Amino acid sequence: MSHNRIAFQGEPGAYSHEACRNARPDMEPLPCRTFEDVIESVRSGAADIAMLPVENSTYGRVADIHHLLPESGLHIVDEAFVRVHISLLAVPGTPLSEIREAMSHTVLLGQCRGFLRDNNIRAITGADTAGSAKEVAARGDRSLAALAAPLAAEIYGLERLADEIEDRQNNTTRFLLMAREPDRSRRADRMLTSFVFRVRNIPAALYKAMGGFATNGVNMTKLESYMVDGVFTATQFYADIEGHPEDANVKLALDELSYFTSRLDILGVYPADPLRARQKGTDNQ
């Protein structure tokens, strides 16, 4: 029995945990050590939904995920965009002037260079964001702070000395919610279809495969390639398009694509997150 759980990678208080809270507030978050563990928890029935980060507007895609998605056996049922707001967390009662060092994941440290420099705080690399908050709470050292989500302060009993200290104010992470069974029954103003494919070994195969989307007026919002099994000659493509496979123009485009591919797997059909439209101009998602 899954007990209405949503699985995520990381410690409680991680940004993935925050994504779970925002997207499925009625579900119990289940922290997992690795992305593989997240997927397995859903496959085994220990959780109903997997919350997986796929890309960040500043740092690009989460590399491991694209290899795991097609082989997971799970289906995308939703997407969620989470703004990365970074807070400086410290032992309660500590003034900002006492902080000498800040610990976090190296990626987060790189997003707060301006604040750390202005306050003469030295950056220390930690395992991850929520794990750094957990360690700061355990040490009780007033000169040491953590850079993490505000949720981590709530979980580990730390005080937020400063909020939204990130250098770039539009930093956003896109998550995919995945389940054991697909759901193509929903309809929204803006639907998305995600799939992976491999082109046949014929001249200009990719060019020809893409032609059907242009001629049928289907907007492709993402197309990425990556190697399969570490072999340079075996390339797989991941794509997001606007529309539902039952839409006439999408069906025609996918039919044409299948003619030029040796493999085509639809990973999910789901409504676009409302934040997606507001990201135009800052992040072409």
Automatic annotation (TrEMBL):
It catalyses: prephenate + H(+) = 3-phenylpyruvate + CO2 + H2O. Gene3D superfamilies: 3.30.70.260, Periplasmic binding protein-like II. Pfam families: PDT. Keywords: Amino-acid biosynthesis, Aromatic amino acid biosynthesis, Lyase, Phenylalanine biosynthesis. It comes from the Bacteria. Residues 5-180 form the Prephenate dehydratase domain. GO terms for molecular function: prephenate dehydratase activity. CDD domains: ACT_CM-PDT, PBP2_Ct-PDT_like. The keyword Ubl conjugation does not apply. Pathway: Amino-acid biosynthesis; L-phenylalanine biosynthesis; phenylpyruvate from prephenate: step 1/1. GO terms for biological process: L-phenylalanine biosynthetic process. Transmembrane segments: none annotated. The record marks 173 as: Essential for prephenate dehydratase activity. InterPro entries: ACT-like_dom_sf, ACT_dom, Chor_mutase/pphenate_deHydtase, Preph_deHydtase, Preph_deHydtase_CS. GO terms for cellular component: cytoplasm. It is an enzyme of class 4 (lyase). Residues 194-271 form the ACT domain. Its EC number is 4.2.1.51. NCBIfam families: PRK11899.1. This is prephenate dehydratase. The lineage of its organism: Bacteria, Pseudomonadati, Pseudomonadota, Alphaproteobacteria, Rhodobacterales.
